[in-house]
Write a structure and sequence with these properties.
Blueprint (H helix, E strand, L loop, with lengths): L8 E5 L2 H11 L3 E5 L2 E7 L5 E8 L9 E7 L2 H10 L15 E2 L6 E5 L5 E6 L5
Parallel strand pairs: 1-4, 5-8
Antiparallel strand pairs: 2-3, 3-4, 6-7, 7-8
Pfam families: Glyoxalase
Protein name: Glyoxalase/bleomycin resistance protein/dioxygenase
InterPro entries: Glyas_Bleomycin-R_OHBP_Dase, Glyas_Fos-R_dOase_dom, VOC_core
């Protein structure tokens, strides 16, 4: 039924101006505003764009799972660049002191947006 129907994903935040500053200025994501919401224009495969809706929700509860994974060629370089912009990475028993998990799968590091939603940078094994 929906095999050719365009779809998009979305997630909530509690503060649209803070989200706009974080996603636009800190992460450098191209975005637009529509009806009090943000649209993240994320890079897709083969030069395409994947739009993701960010909508305000007064009783927002942060997602307890990773809502966006940013594929990067070098996870350590991405962590360094984001730390320089004030981003804090989650450090746990299964990460190194910088917050990078290297035990299984590709190297990955998790951080949160201003609303507490979990994001990651993950090393693309095809480019890193």
């Amino acid at each position: 039924m929906f095999e050719k129907t365009p779809a998009f994903s979305g997630f909530s935040v509690d503060d649209i101006p803070a989200a706009k500053a974080f996603y636009g200025d800190v992460l450098g994501v191209r975005l637009s505003e529509r009806d009090g919401m943000l649209v993240l224009h994320l890079a897709g495969d083969a030069g395409s764009t994947r739009d993701t809706l960010v909508y305000p929700k007064p009783d927002h509860v942060p997602a307890s799972f990773t809502i966006l994974n940013f594929r990067v060629g070098d996870v350590d370089a991405a962590v360094d660049a984001l730390v320089a912009k004030g981003v804090t990475f989650q450090v746990s028993d299964w990460t190194d002191e910088r917050g990078v998990q290297r035990r299984y799968g590709p190297p990955i590091a998790w951080f949160t947006d201003p609303a507490g939603n979990v994001l990651s940078v993950i090393q693309d094994q095809g480019t890193g």
